């Protein structure tokens, strides 16, 4: 075993068996130490130094670690010299060269929210302690009086014993009596009498003085507050003297250490208990392997420790072991919030709350009672574990919400829709394919709404996706028009254009909750492709798409969509794959892991990405009457702005585009097979509002869920009169599909 203590940073770094040989230098050891004023010619000194014997590696020699083995090692004269030049310093890491200065303003004083949180926390605690003790005051009074009485008699007894000077002396006299030592006994008794003679007057005078002082205080012209204070102090003093050490009068406010101040030792202990070999082996070699680039400080309603982990250990690895970390700190899971810190991948920011997040009261969503939203500006959406508000925006964004059942994704998605409702310019359309009516309260402000997982609802949702894409195409023409007039310099919708009545560029928010129902249905493939195109095209055109899904695999959520979404909120998920499908590749590896959240118990918590640094956020919980209240305000705002959807508009919006029936209606008489492009031209004539801009490929996509195959068909171009092969459909296929559908519908 090595003799050097691995936890002693001052331990010699030299391996066992090697000691500097001072004699091998020409300068006597004493001179090296004491006559250091001599000028030494370094070149000559080096030349005179004997060539050191080859030093075997400690392990090879077998004496590197085990001192007891030394006897079996041949001890040869070791001729090593003291290094004349000091060894080169190991380069300090870049971050360590600059000293990290403490923030001028403490973290908790930096924003109003954190000051408010700290003040709220302190006053809440003080209020709790005051209430706790006030309730028990009568009990404390009775106990204090009882123990004060005991204390009084105990004090009197003690004073009497002191005055009689029996303490100690009595035992000695007894001993003398046992030994039949009469002179000794008499001598001890005389000593006691002498002491006693001086003590009695002191006691009597002291007692009289105390009594007089109390009488003066009691009957004199003193404020009764002073009398009360002295009385209380006397009672408390006597009670303290009278009560046994294990019988406290005042109850403890908190049992067990629910909150413990975060100290470096505590952090080290918890980090070494999470089972990361990289940390444990580094700390065993050097206890300073875990370092703190800044002091642990208060940060909102908790403490923040910024930690530099040992070389090679990533903060992400610690984040993944949040449960073990909480165990090491002996705290509930939702009180411990590790996340990667800025700087390098080995820097961890560990925030530990004063109390578990589930016990902390989240402030109400600021927009419930008052306020409007401008979708071009950020609005409150969530809170951090420190209870600071996180704002997000809707414009030029598409959102993906993912999480397992009960993680809170519908609430999160609905919060954005509620915010959109508070901007009267925004047109909102959406489907919830779960069928429980989570968005039913919002129906008055929705231009199109569907709820359910039946084929009809899913088909309508797919129809909405087609409509959104067609709307994007219409909008891109409009934006070209306004760009040419200098009103859309970046080719994007501006707040001015969004507000301009008749511009056709008002913000459009489209949501699909439980989107996996649509993408795994028979309309799924086409809907996925169309939505991907709409997402790519619509961002600049004021089209905001919000998707919620339980299952983020590639069948349930086309990867083309996941790749193009720029705002993501990943609530509790079961595994790394789901995590990375929602947050993007490598999110898990980089420490952004929504797998650490428990569904249901930590509902509403997730990792929000796309708004600065990603991190754990909890959405504002808005439900029941609060939703109704927001909707009522939204209805009022929209009525004032003239943008509240009328029942007729809503009915028209949800009318399903019956492509089969429309194709049958426009079919040219006497033809068996018709080109798609001919059909598209006829469809536009038939219903210009629905089919404007349709291309042959779109018709193919719309017919594919009905299992109608589109193939090459011989025909004649009516404009040129030339014959040719183009993509088209067969009349019999259309009629068969209609018969089949009707048969299914009729049961
Ligand atoms: N921000 C929040 N804070 C606290 N609780 C929340 C929050 N959001 C949601 N919850 C709770 O979680 C429950 C489930 O929420 P929600 O319906 O949004 O989950 P979900 O992920 O959509 O689940 P499912 O897929 O089963 O519908 C809600 O009833 C609510 O009680």
TrEMBL record:
Keywords attached to this entry: ATP-binding, Cell cycle, Cell division, Membrane, Nucleotide-binding, Transmembrane, Transmembrane helix
Which positions in this protein are listed as binding ATP?
403-410
A GO MF label: ATP binding
Q: Where are the residues of the annotated region Disordered?
A: 1-71
Q: Which Gene3D superfamilies match?
A: P-loop containing nucleotide triphosphate hydrolases
Record InterPro entries? FtsK/SpoIIIE/SftA, FtsK_dom, P-loop_NTPase
- The residues that cross the membrane are 140-157, 200-219
What processes does the entry annotate via GO biological process terms? cell division
Which regions are flagged for Acidic residues bias? 60-69
Where is the FtsK domain positioned along the sequence? Answer: 376-580
Family matches, as PROSITE patterns: FTSK
Q: Which Pfam families match?
A: FtsK_SpoIIIE
Protein name, as recorded: Cell division protein FtsK
The species is Pseudofrankia asymbiotica
């Amino acid at each position: 075993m090595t003799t050097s203590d691995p936890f002693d940073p001052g331990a010699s770094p030299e391996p066992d068996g090697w000691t500097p040989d001072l004699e091998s230098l020409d300068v006597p050891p004493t001179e090296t130490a004491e006559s250091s004023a001599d000028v030494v010619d370094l070149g000559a000194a080096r030349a005179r130094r004997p060539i050191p014997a080859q030093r075997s590696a400690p392990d090879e020699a077998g004496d590197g670690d085990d001192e007891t083995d030394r006897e079996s090692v041949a001890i040869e004269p070791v001729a090593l010299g003291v290094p004349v030049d000091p060894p080169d310093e190991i380069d300090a890491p870049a971050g360590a060269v600059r000293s990290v200065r403490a923030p001028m303003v403490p973290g908790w004083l930096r924003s109003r929210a954190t000051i408010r949180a700290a003040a709220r926390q302190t006053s809440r605690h003080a209020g709790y302690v005051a209430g706790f003790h006030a309730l028990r005051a009568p009990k404390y009074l009775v106990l204090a009086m009882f123990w004060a009485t005991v204390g009084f008699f105990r004090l009197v007894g003690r004073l009497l014993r002191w005055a009689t000077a029996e303490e100690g002396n009595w035992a000695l006299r007894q001993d003398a009596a046992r030994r039949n030592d009469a002179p000794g006994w008499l001598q001890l008794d005389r000593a006691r009498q002498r002491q006693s003679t001086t003590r009695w007057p002191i006691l009597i005078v002291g007692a009289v003085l105390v009594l007089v002082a109390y009488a003066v205080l009691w009957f004199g012209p003193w404020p009764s507050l002073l009398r009360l204070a002295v009385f209380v102090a006397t009672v408390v003093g006597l009670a303290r003297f009278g009560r046994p050490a294990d019988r406290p009068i005042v109850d403890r406010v908190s049992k067990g250490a629910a909150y413990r101040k975060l100290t470096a030792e505590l952090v080290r202990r918890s980090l070494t208990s999470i089972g990361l070999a990289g940390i444990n082996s580094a700390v065993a070699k050097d206890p300073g392997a875990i370092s703190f680039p800044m002091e642990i400080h208060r940060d909102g309603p908790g403490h923040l420790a910024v930690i530099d982990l040992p070389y090679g250990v990533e903060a992400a690895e610690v984040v993944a072991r949040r449960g073990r970390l909480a165990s090491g700190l002996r705290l509930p899971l939702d009180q411990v919030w590790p996340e990667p810190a800025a700087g390098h991948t080995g820097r961890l920011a560990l925030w530990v709350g004063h109390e578990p997040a589930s016990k902390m009261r989240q402030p109400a969503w600021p927009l419930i009672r008052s306020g409007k939203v401008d979708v071009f500006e950020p609005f409150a959406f969530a809170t951090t574990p420190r209870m600071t508000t996180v704002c997000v925006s809707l414009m030029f964004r598409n959102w993906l919400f993912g999480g397992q059942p009960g993680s809170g994704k519908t609430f999160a998605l609905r919060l954005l829709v509620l915010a959109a409702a508070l901007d009267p310019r925004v047109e909102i359309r959406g489907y919830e394919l779960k069928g429980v009516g989570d968005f039913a309260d919002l129906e008055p402000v929705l231009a199109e709404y569907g709820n359910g997982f039946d084929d009809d609802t899913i088909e309508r949702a797919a129809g909405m996706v087609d409509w959104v894409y067609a709307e994007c195409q219409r909008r891109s023409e409009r934006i070209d028009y306004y760009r040419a007039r200098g009103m859309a310099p970046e080719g994007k919708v501006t707040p001015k254009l969004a507000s301009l009545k008749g511009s056709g560029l008002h913000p459009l928010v489209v949501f699909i909750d439980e989107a996996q129902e649509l993408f795994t249905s028979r309309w799924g493939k086409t809907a996925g492709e169309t939505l991907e195109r709409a997402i790519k095209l619509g961002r600049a055109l004021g089209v905001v798409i919000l998707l919620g899904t339980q299952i983020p695999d590639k069948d349930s959520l086309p990867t083309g969509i996941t790749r193009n979404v720029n705002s993501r909120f990943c609530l509790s998920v079961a595994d790394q794959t789901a995590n990375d499908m929602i947050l993007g590749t490598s999110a898990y590896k980089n420490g952004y892991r929504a797998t650490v959240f428990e569904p249901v118990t930590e509902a509403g918590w997730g990792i929000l990405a796309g708004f600065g640094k990603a991190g754990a956020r909890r959405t504002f919980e808005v439900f029941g009457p609060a939703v109704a209240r927001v909707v009522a305000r939204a209805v009022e705002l929209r009525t004032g702005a003239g943008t509240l959807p009328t029942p007729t508009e809503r009915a028209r919006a949800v009318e399903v585009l019956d492509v089969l029936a429309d194709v049958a209606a426009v079919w040219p008489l006497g033809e068996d097979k018709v080109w798609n492009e001919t059909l598209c031209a006829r469809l536009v004539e038939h219903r210009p509002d629905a089919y404007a801009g349709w291309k042959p490929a779109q018709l193919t996509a719309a017919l594919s869920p009905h299992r109608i195959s589109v193939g090459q068909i011989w025909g004649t171009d009516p404009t040129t009169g030339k014959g040719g092969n183009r993509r088209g459909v067969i009349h019999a296929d259309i009629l068969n599909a209609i018969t089949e559908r009707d048969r299914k519908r009729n049961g």
